[in-house]
Amino acid sequence: MAQLILFTGKGGVGKSSVSAATAFHHANEGYRVLLISSDPAHSTEDVVGCNIGTQPTYIKPNLWAMNISSLREAEF
């Protein structure tokens, strides 16, 4: 069964760090995880230690990550 976990809050509270740590934890537990960031600053790249594109990028076994542009996705 698929699950969705969202991390929200104002800037600088640690959303990228906590979401990446949660993703790594679940990947280590054997779950397939896609970490998606909509942060225009791309802070998730700093946390996971590699560039993340707009397509799922392999990070480690069971873990992929990608960036999305919330402004572009909201356009009609």
How is the biggest beta sheet arranged?
3 strands, mixed
Beta fraction: 15-25%
Overall geometric form: globular
Mean pLDDT: 90
Summary?
With 76 residues, the protein is of the alpha+beta class.
Architecture overview:
With 76 residues, the chain is an alpha+beta fold. It has three helices and three strands. It has a three-stranded mixed sheet with strand order 1-3-2. Strand 2 and strand 3 form a beta hairpin. The longest helix is centred in the first third of the chain and has 14 residues. The mean pLDDT is 90.
What are the main properties of this structure?
76 residues, alpha+beta, three-stranded mixed beta sheet, 3 helices, 18% strand
Question: Layout of SSEs?
Answer:
Elements: H1 15-28, E1 33-37, H2 43-48, E2 57-60, E3 63-67, H3 70-74
Parallel strand pairs: 1-3
Antiparallel strand pairs: 2-3
